[in-house]
């Protein structure tokens, strides 16, 4: 089992910045990709950004150039630096860790990000 705990959410004005952190613990040997997803009210959960064990990144088009995902492997922590925030970024942000064998996804409890206009 893997446990994920997010922190860093909150209320910020449009144009501001926030940094999310996700600490992982437990059986980490089979964890490969980690990432962030978000879910706004009335919408499906969507990918924000992912990062591989080797540091390769992938971003949703809506956040490219504004968000940066990073990973500290010795600390089992993944970060999401969010800049130039927009009201449409308002959502619950979830940390994700992908297990290779057996294949399964682990999720954090989520952290609320609210961007006011």
Explain what you see.
The protein starts with a strand and ends with a strand. The protein has no helices and eleven strands. Strands 2, 4, 5, 6, 9, 10 and 11 form a seven-stranded mixed beta sheet that branches. The chain has 117 residues and is mostly beta strands. Helices cover 0% and strands 58% of the residues.
Attribute tags:
0% helix; globular; mainly beta; 4-stranded antiparallel beta sheet; 117 residues; 7-stranded mixed beta sheet; 58% strand
Short description:
The chain has strands spanning 2-7, 10-13, 18-26, 31-39, 46-51, 57-59, 67-72, 77-82, 91-99, 104-107, 111-116.
Alpha carbon gyration radius: 14 Å
Helical coverage, percent range? under 10%
- Strand % is over 45%
Instruction: Indicate the overall shape.
Output: globular
Main beta sheet: 7 strands, mixed
- Give the distance, in angstroms, between the N- and C-terminal Cα atoms: 40 Å
Structural class, from helix and strand content? Answer: mainly beta
The tally of beta strands, per DSSP, is 11
């Amino acid at each position: 089992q893997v446990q994920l705990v997010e922190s860093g959410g909150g209320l910020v004005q449009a144009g501001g910045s926030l940094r999310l952190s996700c600490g992982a613990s437990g059986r980490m040997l089979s964890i490969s990709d980690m990432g962030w997803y978000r879910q706004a009210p009335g919408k499906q959960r969507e990918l924000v950004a992912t990062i591989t064990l080797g540091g390769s990144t992938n971003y949703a088009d809506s956040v490219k150039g504004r968000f940066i995902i990073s990973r500290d492997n010795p600390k089992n922590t993944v970060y999401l630096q969010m800049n130039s925030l927009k009201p449409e970024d308002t959502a619950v942000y979830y940390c994700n860790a992908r297990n290779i064998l057996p294949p399964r996804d682990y999720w954090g409890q989520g952290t609320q990000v609210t961007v006011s206009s």
